[in-house]
Amino acid sequence: MIFDVASRVWLPVMTMRDELPYPSGWFYLARARELAPGSVLTRRFMDEDVVLYRTRGGRLRAVRPYCPHLGAHLGAGGTVRGENLVCPFHRFAFAPDGTCVGTPDGPPPRTRLEHHTLSEHNGFVFAWYEPEGAPPAWEVPDTAQAGVVPTAAWSTEVHTHPQEIIENTLDYRHLPVLHQVTVRELDPPTAQGPLLGMRLRLGPDRPPALRHRIRADHTFLMAGLGYLRVELPLPSLGLVSYLWAMHTPTGPRRTRMLVATACADLRRPDATGASLPRHGLHRAFARAMLRTAVGKVRQDLRIWNTKRYEPRPRLAANDEGIGLFRHWARQFYPSA
């Protein structure tokens, strides 16, 4: 315990049990369709604001929020003029490389905005974070089919660390208990650098006669602690569905979670070539998948929002996946 002089009360000392540091990796900030040319958005990221904008020429940028002139927030009224981001306070203009290139009065000062490294995949915009400022060491994986973008999405704020959310994927034992979902491991969790993949057969309990004919074989792929993609082929319908779960730290024990879904033709290599009637089917199926997923997430939220992080969990005999996950996750934190 420590004594807080201002409030004159004893407070608990923060330990590893209470907090995990922010992990390195790629984290979702926005959907690409939110950033049309000329738009400016503000997003919360690692307990700081990030200002995203797209130039009139289509270049996407993300900068730290405050103008180096007199500190105005560039997301609170900042505008895009041509290729430049313009401060709302004194109209200082900043080029895509961050350099100050114009002022209303006289030559610009020698200063520049600090940038975040961005990447766009499948209609998502990701930002790279590394506590020491190192450049990206790996890339976000694309889907096998070109042109797949989410058509349905939902988001919420979760009062926990992103590791706690994505670890839930390896916790098979909670599926029948909390979600009434049967699970069978088809391919065990396998780590390859920043990626962790596995394949499970999931579904509600069915009569024995139907278990054979109706299969739901899900392929899971984690990329760091902020990205999860689930692929579900449905050969009988000629479809494949995708579900993404993104977990972005916004502050201590605060994570913004996005769940998004898409659907495409299974046998078509280019998802953009589907006919209009098939596009309607794709959207309807994606919405149905999202409703189902959000229903399960809402059940998880009651646990996530009230649980604590256990740095040394007492694992049961069938918890091998959680042990493997914890070992894999160490790479995303600074070494002690």
TrEMBL record:
The keyword Lipid metabolism applies. Residues 27-127 form the Rieske domain. GO terms for molecular function: 2 iron, 2 sulfur cluster binding; metal ion binding; monooxygenase activity; oxidoreductase activity, acting on paired donors, with incorporation or reduction of molecular oxygen. Keywords: 2Fe-2S, Iron, Iron-sulfur, Lipid degradation, Lipid metabolism, Metal-binding, Oxidoreductase, Steroid metabolism. It holds the Pfam family Rieske. It comes from Streptomyces diastatochromogenes. One of its GO terms (cellular component) is cytoplasm. Homotrimer. The two-component system 3-ketosteroid-9-alpha-monooxygenase is composed of an oxygenase component KshA and a reductase component KshB. This is Rieske-type oxygenase. Its cofactor is Fe cation. The keyword Cell wall biogenesis/degradation does not apply. Gene3D superfamilies: Naphthalene 1,2-dioxygenase Alpha Subunit, Chain A, domain 1 (3.90.380.10), Rieske [2Fe-2S] iron-sulphur domain (2.102.10.10). One of its GO terms (biological process) is cholesterol metabolic process. PROSITE patterns: RIESKE.
